[in-house]
Design goal:
single chain, 360 residues, alpha/beta, five-stranded parallel sheet, two-stranded antiparallel ribbon, 47% helix, elongated
Length: 360
């Protein structure tokens, strides 16, 4: 019996996009074979791939704007051979930026292909890919039944409102309610933010309850566990530490970054159609007071602790010991201090989402 549902043949330069699709397929209860998850260090690619190909039920050939990779070309020949011998589906998949199959790939012209022309998170294309992998079984269109009646909490939190908001697809209010219940769980008042330790030691029962509600009512599209899988797929680690490159790639995948810049909170997709129009893992954001928290721990510590400390010392010295300062200059200095303090507070808002991944 085959151990994998689909072999993902791809150019290594297209790996981030293919890893994203692999995560999406896992959310649909499919088991993809992808090299970086299956080939141990010290093993040769050719030997491992030769052993893997006979064990798959189908194969997806990903074609990006850079064309086929060196190993991918070899894989294609082996997969076509298996297709003839075992009658397994071979599915050409066009990644964003590719509109047609290259003319030189003659063998693939015979197969119906799938196009992610709009976005890598195109739900329709993902459903077609699932359909091809499952050999004609109709893709699921309804969320899997996950019990949500049990809303027990370690901290005595009432999750009824969160469940009702998610059931109504009111994603923006549900995101705000997620922040409220989480800040309650760490015994803080609304408007405050989380410390590193509070998220690293967040009550596991409550975190999993919140996650299950999001996963259930978004049909597996949103939730902390969904975000965790994406974060791990781009090189992050669920150890509570900050990895800048992985965090930025994660931001790109979930739609929190565009053109190498973090977007504003007002640009977050809270439409009722979000589970089909927004990237997988786009929510929850869990940001108080309309902030989009995306900065690193190091920068946060610098602007929220050190700068205010340095500025306050300097202002105290000037005001306390410079007797020649006039009233106008004093007022101006005060205004500048308020501005600096506001900027420090505003830019110190950061996402610590990756810290809760350790508890899932």
């Amino acid at each position: 019996m085959a151990e994998f549902d689909v072999f993902l043949a791809h150019n290594s330069l297209d790996k981030p996009e293919v890893q994203y699709i692999a995560v999406a397929l896992k959310r649909r209860n499919l088991r993809p074979w992808i090299d970086d998850e299956q080939i141990p260090p010290g093993r040769t690619f050719q030997d491992e791939i030769q052993q893997a190909i006979p064990l798959v039920r189908s194969a997806a050939i990903f074609i990006g704007v850079r064309g086929l990779g060196r190993w991918q070309s070899w894989e294609l020949k082996a997969l076509i051979n298996q297709c003839v011998k075992r009658n397994i589906p071979v599915i050409p998949v066009l990644l964003p930026g590719v509109e047609q199959l290259p003319e030189n790939l003659i063998f693939l012209q015979e197969f119906r292909w799938i196009c992610f022309s709009e976005s890598i998170s195109d739900e329709h294309a993902l459903s077609l890919l699932e359909w091809g992998i499952t050999a004609g079984k109709k893709p699921r269109t309804q969320p899997q039944s996950i019990p949500t009646d049990n809303l027990d909490s370690e901290k005595g939190i009432d999750y009824t409102r969160l469940r009702n908001l998610l059931a109504k697809e009111n994603w923006k209010e549900a995101d705000a309610e997620t922040y409220r219940v989480m800040i309650q769980a760490v015994d803080k008042k609304e408007g405050k933010w989380f410390t590193d330790d509070e998220l690293l030691n967040f009550p596991r029962t409550d975190l999993r309850k919140i996650d299950k509600l999001w996963v259930t009512y978004s049909n597996g599209h949103f939730g902390f566990s969904v975000q965790k899988e994406i974060y791990l797929s781009v090189g992050g680690k669920a150890d509570g530490k900050y990895y800048k490159q992985a965090w930025e790639k994660f931001g790109d995948c979930v739609g929190w970054r565009e053109n190498n810049s973090w977007i504003n909170y007002s640009d977050i997709n809270f439409d009722t159609s979000a589970p089909t129009s927004a990237p997988m893992g786009h929510l929850p954001l869990v940001a108080p007071m309309g902030d989009l928290p995306v900065l690193s721990n190091e920068f946060n510590e610098f602007v929220s602790v050190r700068i205010p400390l340095y500025v306050s010392v300097i202002c105290g010295f000037v005001i306390g010991y410079n007797s020649s300062i006039n009233v106008g200059s004093g007022v101006l200095l005060g205004v500048c201090w308020v501005g600096v303090y506001w900027l420090c507070w505003h830019f110190s808002r950061k996402s610590l989402t990756y810290k809760v991944f350790r508890k899932l």
